[in-house]
């Protein structure tokens, strides 16, 4: 019960932080533009997460809590858990995180949140392929409604684009944002499944030890991209922090927190849980966007959010989760094969 409650709390936190992140990105614009180098914020976020992981490893050790292995076995486990494969999701996340900022040039926060759910079909497919987890029929129906809610929002948003939309975006801008979100969704699905696999591969190793490696490669990849684009002169504080304000700093911290929460969900729950947390953020984002920017939700957002919430209700019903868990246990006992 404690684990389920912990996962639920992490999901709620991720929902709130995801919504907050989108709102802060919007607030950091000046006349619709970012006055700072976007890549620097991503690099700072990776550094924040890296040093946080180091501190946690120093405080609690590199092994998972409750691990009773002897010293020699622990050393072997840690050596095995050291993997350069963490560079793969780091590279994918670097590209994806950069595209997120560009997507927010063309989309309002609620639109961004709902369109980000396009990664669900590929994530569900890859998750089923890699982890071979069976699900209750009603859970599949819930996932289908999440996909339907996202697609219907996109279609209705295009249909209503001739009206005065949120942020006054043109049809061309909305289609550009949609194209970027499709790319982000594909990249996110691949990186998410890969990261979950690596985080769960060594259960005896602390999540912070695994994260430390992931974020190290994140710093390496994002730093390389930044220097290739701006040169080493960008390291001068006057250039590195040019255009920064309170909203920019907040975006760095919130994005780092979001990444840490995502790693917890993938270690102790799964990518599907992460997607549902993001879907919940879409409705919350609509409310906050209306309060802060006086932008009432469009009919497309309302319809899409309603369908998504119904899907969430079906997916999270306890009786469906229990049934799915029983099937998984039985399948695991039968040579770990799920038909």
**What best-fitting shape do the alpha-carbon axes yield?**
globular
Strand share of the residues? under 5%
C-alpha end-to-end distance: 29 Å
Helix content: over 70%
Helix-strand pattern: HHHHHHHHHHHHHH
Output the radius of gyration: 21 Å
Please give the count of helices: 14
SSE class: mainly alpha
Write a short abstract of this structure.
By secondary structure, the protein is mainly α.
Brief descriptors of the model:
single chain, 339 residues, mainly alpha, globular
SSE layout and pairings?
Elements: H1 2-27, H2 38-60, H3 71-81, H4 87-106, H5 109-115, H6 119-131, H7 137-159, H8 171-201, H9 207-230, H10 237-240, H11 246-268, H12 271-293, H13 299-315, H14 318-333
Describe this structure in words.
With about 350 residues, this protein is mainly alpha-helical. The protein has one domain (about 1-335). The protein has 14 helices and no strands. The protein has helices at about 1-25, 40-60, 70-80, 85-105, 110-115, 120-130, 135-160, 170-200, 205-230, 235-240, 245-270, 270-295, 300-315, 320-335. The chain starts with a helix and ends in a 6-residue tail after the last helix.
């Amino acid at each position: 019960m404690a684990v389920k409650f912990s996962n639920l709390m992490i999901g709620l936190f991720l929902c709130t932080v995801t919504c907050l992140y989108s709102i802060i990105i919007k607030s950091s614009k000046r006349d619709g533009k970012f006055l700072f180098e976007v890549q620097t914020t991503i690099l700072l976020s990776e550094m924040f997460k890296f040093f946080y992981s180091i501190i946690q490893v120093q405080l609690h050790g590199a092994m998972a809590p409750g691990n009773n292995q002897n010293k020699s076995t622990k050393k072997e486990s840690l050596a095995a858990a050291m993997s350069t494969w963490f560079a793969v999701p780091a590279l994918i996340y670097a590209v994806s995180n950069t595209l997120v900022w560009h997507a927010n040039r063309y989309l309002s926060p609620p639109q961004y949140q709902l369109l980000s759910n396009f990664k669900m079909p590929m994530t569900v497919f890859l998750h089923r392929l890699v982890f071979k987890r069976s699900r209750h029929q009603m859970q599949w129906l819930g996932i289908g409604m999440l996909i339907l809610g996202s697609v219907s929002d996109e279609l209705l948003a295009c249909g209503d684009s001739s009206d005065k939309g949120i942020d006054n975006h043109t049809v061309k801008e909305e289609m550009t944002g949609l194209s970027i979100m499709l790319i982000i969704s594909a990249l996110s699905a691949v990186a998410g499944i890969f990261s979950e696999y690596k985080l769960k591969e060594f259960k005896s190793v602390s999540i912070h030890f695994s994260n430390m490696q992931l974020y190290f490669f994140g710093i390496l990849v994002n730093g390389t991209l930044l220097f290739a684009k701006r040169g080493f002169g960008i390291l001068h504080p006057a250039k590195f922090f040019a255009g920064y304000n309170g909203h920019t700093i907040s975006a760095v911290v919130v994005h780092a927190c979001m990444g840490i929460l995502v790693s917890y969900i993938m270690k102790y729950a799964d990518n599907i849980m992460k997607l549902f947390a993001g879907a919940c953020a879409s409705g919350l984002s609509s409310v906050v966007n209306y309060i802060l920017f006086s932008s009432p939700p469009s009919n497309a957002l309302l319809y899409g959010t309603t369908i998504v919430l119904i899907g969430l209700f079906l997916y999270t019903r306890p009786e469906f989760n229990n049934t799915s868990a029983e099937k998984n246990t039985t399948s695991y006992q039968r040579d770990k094969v799920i038909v």
